[in-house]
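Hi V.,

You were right to ask for the full record rather than a summary. Here it is.
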Amino acid sequence: MDLQHLQLALSERGVATVTIANGTALNILDSATTAEMAQLLRRLARDDSVRALVLRGSGERAFVAGANINELVQLAPDTARRFITGLHDLCEAVRDFPQPTVARLAGWTMGGGLELAAACDLRVGARDAQFSMPEVRVGIPSVIHARLLARLIGEGNARWLLLTGAAIDADKALRWGLLNEVADAGELDAAVQQLLDDLLACAPRALRAQKALLRAWEDPSIERGLHESITAFADSYTTDEPREAMEQHFFNRKRG
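Predicted structure:
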């Protein structure tokens, strides 16, 4: 598979590391990157030599600082549905991955990036990492795998994150249960490696079976909520509110 927006590294121990490297400073997700990543993960899922998956962004400024605002501002209801369905399919490729998935979270993790991280089994963040769901500030609701946040951090914390659009730091993310571990400056890779060592010490078939059981134990209503949120996202583009809010929030700020 010829990768245009990603980098793939396969270790001798069976760890697949997928790095978002699409030329944006903050690893912003566009439709092309999302589609390529979903295709790659589905291919890796069929490789029995892969025992764990790590998702990360290039550099240390961000894991993924949201979706491409230049693409979002141009959407209409039909293209909005296609865009958010592509992101949904990527996050589902992560949730369906047969082996444990780990998100390495440096810098900013925002919007679609936080949904992608929430779809992973485990999350390790840098001490200076920041997390937010800012969609309501730019005229659209947080949808699809934002649905997972209440299970991770509790209903009240999820409501605060989704309704305010404000950011939380790594220490609060750890207290809330969004992160499994926080690493001090310069120690993020070592913390991820220690987690991988723990995973690889487990029996491969048993770990695969446990991952499948964890998915089977989930509340079936999650699936309904995910599909309903696709319609909510597309419907938000029946007015000019997303375009106007995005232009005010991003483009006017740049002009100033």
